[in-house]
Design a protein that fits this description.
This protein is of the alpha+beta class. The protein has two domains: about 140 residues, no CATH class; about 140 residues, Histidine kinase-like ATPase, C-terminal domain (Heat Shock Protein 90), CATH 3.30.565. The chain contains six helices and eleven strands. Strands 6-8-9-11-10 form a five-stranded mixed beta sheet, covered by helices on one side. Strands 1-4-3-2 form a four-stranded antiparallel beta sheet. The chain has a two-stranded antiparallel ribbon with strand order 5-7. It is rod-shaped.
Amino acid sequence: MKFEKKFLTLSFFIIFGLLFLLISSINYNIYVKEKHYLLDKIKKDLEICSYKLNCKNIQIDFVKKNDNLKVLYLYENDKNYHMLFNLPQFKHYFLKLSISKTIYQKELKDIKIKILKIFLFEVIFVLIITFVFMYILLLPLKEAYKLNETFIKDILHDLNTPLTTLKMNLYLLKKSPNKEKIEEMEKNIKRILKYQENLKNFLSLNPNQIETFNIKSIIDEKLHFYSSLYPTITYENSADCKITINKNAFDAIIENIISNAFKYNKKNGNVKIFIKNKKLYIKDTGIGIKNPKKVFDRFYKENERGIGIGMNIVKKLCDELKIPIEIISNEKGTTIILDLKNYC
């Protein structure tokens, strides 16, 4: 999770930093506008006072006219703001109205405090929003990490059985050569290679050469292999049909379906495979599937056995080969139907 934490920390600071800059910019612009609005307000107050000449906090004075002075212009010095006005009765003097800068600074301070409070509230809000967003972002990452961890554990678990058998058979072969042990080792090597093939199919679909072949021979091979692993389960195969298709991909589809038909069957159960109306039926007397709609989801499994990617691979390959697939399942068993009308 070290990489995920780095990613989340970096993402948090980037998102929060950008939002912080955004609200800082917005609030600064608000402050500038409020400041201009306050100066405009002072200017209007002075203009209004010029008509009645009796205003609170405004001082009245007269200034001798000269060309450098402007009327209706807001002047500023260290102590006050003031404006000059023309009066008809005074030809040589301007009316000077002044307001102390202290009043302006007090109002400006109130504006600053108000904007600062809003800014702090917005920062806290953005902080919470960023945390919530990062938490939501973390959930799928944590789930993906957990799925990957489970996936690796299940791969190791599934590989452990054939590898342990191989080690035992090798140990026994060292003591006394035995044809049955050699055959058992070959079967387990095939199982390991099949796990590797499934993993490759899971990771990517590699285009392979299209071939014409009879599906019966492929199905018989799978049935023979898995019946040796599950000797209490019987089988029958009447599927006899030539198809022209991507052989490796079709082989992987059949491998996964037949593997499940044996693996999740009941003791003394049966696997029956046949063709009807150009559809391939693979029927078992197993425990059934509780959620047939979810069975194609990656990593979905209804018990602790298996990796949970087999039927996801099947669906992925069927979609690639444009083979419609249907699942009918109940407590009496499961039937998987592959529509081969485009190939058979």
